[in-house]
């Protein structure tokens, strides 16, 4: 960064007196914590931002997944040790589980653009606040409004959560230098499997306890509200807005990210014509279809086919995603090593790890499809292998948005993530159609084979047309060019 650029950053900070003065109201509490890291280059403020984003995704996945386990307890009077816990007749479980994604897909593109244009901080706080309040009131919603109320509440939660991942990609693009992108990106996205693990474990144990399933919603509601307070105090849109980032760390981040560009327009037509973007979208769609099938249907599969009680159901439902979380760090380490030592290019690394994940998962799914219900141990091992293999994708498509366009990473994530989650809407509905008898392992076979086929198609498409290079349309081009649309 030149002296002129450093001067512009200092000037930018001086032009925001209201933000600085309002922040100083809390600085006597906050500043001592920041100064602990002020002179330590290995642990910087970028890591604090990524950790806050990790907690956000961890909590959000709790809101998403808790219902997959608690819906079993909601409809089973014997699930809790307390006979006074309310249970309900919910015939349309597939619709209830898919309702979250009715709202989730729509705000994605706007969320990415809004994060790029206005900053992501307050969008994230509002989104988490809405999810938290709806989660706390979920037991009352089902009691007074039944299935319809649950569907509406879940759709609104989904709409709110639609702002999270586009904003996450945008903030990673603002805070994480290229040398640390795979590791810190895998850490942030690793909150997805860990959030699923903890939500399934917690929901299973709480549902079986004397407190019953409502407590699971209260716990995540309180965690979400607490995160809103933390991010209000500690979260920032970029290093230029952070009052305590040292010049050394700011330089380390911005020398790679080139944050001095201005965002005037999004090259929509060039994005829609981009082969690597389509490869990313198709791969992401296949991945999301399979993972959403796993986390929404594994509890039901274990309950009806493997015949597990609610406590063990939550434990074993979480095991595949715990494996996914652990292995994601292993794969991200090897990916970064291969890229930084120039053993392979970024694009080759993304294709390699993406293929390992999707093909490995598909092979396990094929074996699972041909496993009878009198071999529960084998079925569980294959579930763990199939889900665990997908951890390799954390070093594949998951961070490819930033590879293709650091400038429009949030918009790109919003675009692909929104449309890709249409597959998550279809997943529980397809299972409901293919498996009318939940106790029939033969009917579950078609679910697993379909998921395996989708994974193979996604892997092949990414090999052929995926890329790890920054795309030409990432560079600033004047608005007058016809391929640019402005909001």
TrEMBL record:
SUPFAM superfamilies to which the protein is assigned, alphabetical: MFS general substrate transporter
This protein's name: Putative inorganic phosphate cotransporter
Main location: membrane
Alphabetized UniProt keyword annotations: Ion transport, Membrane, Sodium, Sodium transport, Symport, Transmembrane, Transmembrane helix, Transport
Transmembrane stretches, start-end: 21-44, 50-74, 95-116, 122-146, 182-203, 215-236, 277-302, 314-332, 352-368, 380-399, 419-435, 447-466
Keyword Membrane in annotation: yes
GO CC, one annotated term: membrane
Gene3D superfamilies in UniProt: MFS general substrate transporter like domains (1.20.1250.20)
Annotated Major facilitator superfamily (MFS) profile domain residues: 54-470
InterPro entries (UniProt xref): MFS, MFS_dom, MFS_Na/Anion_cotransporter, MFS_trans_sf, Sugar_transporter_CS
Membrane topology label: Multi-pass membrane protein
Family indicated by similarity: Belongs to the major facilitator superfamily. Sodium/anion cotransporter family.
Keyword Cell division on entry: no
GO MF term set: symporter activity
Function: May be an inorganic phosphate cotransporter.
Annotated GO biological process: sodium ion transport
């Amino acid at each position: 960064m030149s002296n002129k650029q450093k001067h512009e950053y200092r000037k930018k900070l001086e032009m925001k007196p209201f933000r600085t003065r309002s922040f100083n109201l809390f600085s006597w509490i906050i500043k001592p914590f920041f100064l602990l890291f002020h002179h330590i280059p290995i642990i910087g403020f970028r890591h604090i931002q990524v950790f806050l984003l990790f907690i956000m995704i961890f909590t959000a996945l709790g809101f998403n997944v808790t219902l997959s386990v608690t819906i079993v307890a909601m409809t089973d009077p014997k699930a809790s040790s307390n006979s006074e816990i309310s249970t309900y007749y919910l015939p349309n479980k597939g619709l209830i589980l898919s309702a979250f994604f009715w709202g989730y897909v729509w705000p994605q593109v706007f969320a990415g653009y809004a994060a790029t244009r206005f900053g992501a901080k307050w969008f994230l706080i509002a989104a988490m606040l809405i999810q938290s309040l709806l989660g706390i009131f979920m037991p009352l919603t089902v009691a007074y409004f039944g299935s319809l109320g649950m569907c509406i509440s879940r759709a609104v939660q989904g709409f709110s959560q639609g702002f999270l991942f586009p904003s996450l990609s945008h903030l990673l693009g603002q805070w994480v230098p290229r040398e640390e992108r795979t590791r810190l990106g895998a850490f942030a996205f690793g909150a997805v499997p860990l959030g699923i693990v903890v939500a399934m474990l917690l929901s299973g144990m709480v549902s079986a306890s004397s407190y019953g399933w409502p407590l699971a919603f209260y716990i995540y509601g309180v965690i979400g509200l607490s995160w809103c307070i933390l991010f209000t105090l500690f979260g920032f849109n970029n290093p230029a807005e952070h009052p305590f980032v040292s010049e050394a760390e700011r330089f380390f981040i911005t020398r790679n990210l080139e944050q001095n560009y201005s965002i005037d327009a999004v090259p929509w037509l060039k994005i829609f014509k981009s082969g690597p973007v389509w490869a990313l979208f198709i791969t992401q769609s296949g991945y999301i279809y399979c993972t959403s099938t796993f986390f929404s249907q594994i509890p039901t599969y274990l309950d009806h086919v493997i015949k597990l009680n609610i406590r063990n159901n939550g434990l074993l439902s979480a095991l595949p995603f715990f494996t996914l979380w652990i292995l994601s760090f292993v794969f991200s380490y090897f990916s970064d090593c291969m890229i930084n030592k120039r053993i392979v290019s970024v694009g080759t690394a993304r294709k390699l790890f993406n293929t390992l994940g999707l093909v490995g998962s598909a092979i396990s799914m094929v074996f699972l499809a041909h496993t009878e219900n009198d071999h529960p141990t084998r079925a569980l091992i294959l579930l763990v292998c199939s889900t665990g293999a997908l951890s390799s994708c954390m070093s594949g498509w998951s961070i490819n948005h930033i590879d293709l366009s650091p400038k429009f990473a949030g918009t790109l994530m919003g675009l692909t993530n929104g449309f890709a989650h249409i597959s998550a809407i279809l997943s529980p509905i397809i299972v409901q159609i293919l498996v009318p008898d939940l106790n029939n392992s033969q009917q579950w076979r078609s679910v697993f084979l379909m998921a395996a086929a989708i994974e193979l198609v996604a892997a092949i498409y990414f090999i052929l047309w995926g890329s790890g290079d920054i795309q030409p349309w990432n560079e600033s081009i004047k608005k007058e060019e016809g391929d640019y649309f402005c909001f």
